[in-house]
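pasting for ref. prot 1 ->
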Amino acid sequence: MRRLVLLVSAIVLVDTMFYAVVTPLLPTYADELDLGKTASGILAAAYPAGTLIGAIPAGIVAARLGAKPTVLLGLALLAVSTLTFGFAGDVVVLDGARFVQGLGGACSWAGGLAWLVEAAPPETRGAVIGTALGAAIGGSLLGPVVGALAEATSPEAVFSSVVVLAGGLALAAARTPGTGRPDAQPLRVLVDAVRTAPVLVAMWLVALPAFAFGMVGVLGALRMDGFGAGGAAVGAAFLVAAAVEGVVSPLVGRVSDRRGRLVPVRAGLAAATVVLALVTVPQTALLLGIAIVATSAALGTFWAPAMAMLSDAAESARLQQGLAFALVNLAWATGQVAGSGLGGGLAEATADGVPLGIAALCCAVTLAVLQVRPVRLGGESQAAAP
């Protein structure tokens, strides 16, 4: 089990690293390609758009062929698309490469997390998912550093390294025994599961922080650039933010196993309501960087409990775990696309505080609804009821 956890953690780390690499590069691409906030938002949203389109197909592949083949497919797509991104000099090609990266990410995450959950005891589900997410957040830590390195040296050389990383991980995955049995469940089972309240609530709690992160990733980077911060400074701010989030995720995963999935989520909703409303208050790059770190810490409390919640609910609905994590991908990607794309466009048409205020309001309303009408979740027998 430990070897599998290490393998899946490494896979999601590399995938997330090349997802996060674009953040410090956004100001450079904006200057060189004459991109506004809307075009910058589209570039940032291209990856989650690929994940959105690929979410259900990746889940079907994981259910019918197994988790391991799905992971191998994801690594292959990651290698090809990242290499293309490194050599691209046109915004359309960049958008397309990021889109294919997102397709690969859908396969890697659906296959990798299903592989983990199928092998792990139910009572450790939150901790196992939290560990993998901690590694993925480590990728978020390295991504801005890699992006800053690419900006300072050669994007072609830096992004070419992904072929070596993906190849090594594919070899390790091929040598690791698979778990579970392929199960060609009809889509009717998926549709029926999505109609249940626990699944819908869990999907919303995955989408909501993704929505907010999408906005902060675009608007935060561009605001820091407007305050005079360079790519290295922007990368440093998001590096520290991801470091804090990486510490938070495994901890809240364990808390959710012991005290119920909604306990850490409620705390995160309360904190996120405040920090999102205050992100636009700082008027220096340093203070804005601190606000970005605080926002990441608050939103980071959602991921492990919400994903474990969705896995629990899917199990109760007799939905195969590959399809369960397809729903995770679908929810995350929807939030990211809306946050990065619509958030950038709305900010350009009005002000940065408008989309961020909407995100804060969504957190506040969600917290109020969960306080008034708590949802009974699948898997609560392994943890205290919220």
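and prot 2 ->
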Amino acid sequence: MKVNKKFFPGVLLTAFAFSVGFLMNNQPNTQAKSAVKVVWRQKMTRSFYTINQSKAKNGYAYSAKLGKKVFKLSNYSHKTFTAYYHQKLKVNNQYRIYYYVKSNSGKKASGWVWRNYLKKIPSKINSSNSIIGATVSSQSQLMSYINAAPDLDPNLTILGFETDVYSKYKTTLSQQYNLAQFASSGVFKDNHAKIYVADNRLNSYVNTAIERWNAALGKNVFSIGSSSDHTLTVKLNDASTEKWDGLFSGNIIEINSKNFTNPNYANNNLATSSTLEAKLTDISNQASSLLDLTNTLLNKLRINYQLQYLTLESKYNNSSNASTKSTIQKQISDLATNYENQDKAIRQNYDSQVSALRQAVKDAYVQEQPAISQASTTNYWTTVIMHELGHGLGLYHTPYQSDVMFASSSDEQDATPSPVKYAWTQAKDPSDAMAYTSATLTSRDVDRAKLAEILGYW
């Protein structure tokens, strides 16, 4: 079973682009445009929602800063959504709370939705309408339960059947959730495997992978063994001509030593770290405040100019004295010159401070790059090992790149054959983060492993 090299986008430094309205000649009339400002954005306890049909008839889900509409809420009025993040936005001097939600079944949809458009599902009701202890009297009834669950993710209904259901429908369940027997006999004894790490350079990655699988499954599934007492070996392999990173073969996990020892191989798959995110958020807030202040100053300057101009213009029109008119014309000319100079000074000050903020962004990336590179390398190889341990548990690949068990294709060359629910050649969640950016198991990874245990694959 192989893990192929993924596509690694480089760290992209996005230049901040800020603008202020251009004022026309001596009688400007441009007003500062209202902006959407992020006050805060945080993770939230996952909870489940449906669309509030009475309020969201013409509502939409949006991208993060309401830049574009993602989908119309009324088209998903009967879907259940999980909320992962919430943010407070300042829009036209008013504050609103938005939730980042993803649909739980069917055609996937995700985006930021104003919380008043959502209706929370009481915690006592399971989001996927799971039925613990459901009876299965036929293949068609089993498929109705499978079709009601999220794609490739066995919910509590699937994990809560009577024992005889799993023996009777093992083949169907295996194919519907991409499961098979990959571990050799004896790797798992009483649902537990002891791992011998043959190269100490792999120790930290293996230990982290073990901790994350054990924590997710709520039991001691993997532990570190020794050269004389183990059931599964993890080692480096000089696979210089191969294109895989990790390979599972019965009772051995091999890691491509050429790729593993290349310091640049896996250090560019993270664009940010938590520290960098905090710095960039602070800089973004400074830039937003600077823009607001600059537009306020320009607006005040424009209004003062217009009032003084109209006053002088009125005096000029009401005067019949040539000398007085000449004096007023000189005052108008001086007023215009003074206005242009002050306008220019405000804009130059803005440009100077924006330039400093752009440099601060670059400096932040430079300062955090070593930590980002280390985190990238650590998370990448931890994920590779988690992926291979997943094969040991009986998990074949999925088309979801957020899963640790993701593969870009259902029929990777030389991969161990396995029955699959359907074929794929591209990710089904291309907008989601790759699993190796955080080395985190998804609920789909964990639920499939639980079903694999019930089916006897580990």
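The first strand starts at residue 2 and ends at 4.
Confidence is low (pLDDT under 50) at residues 1-34, 123-128.
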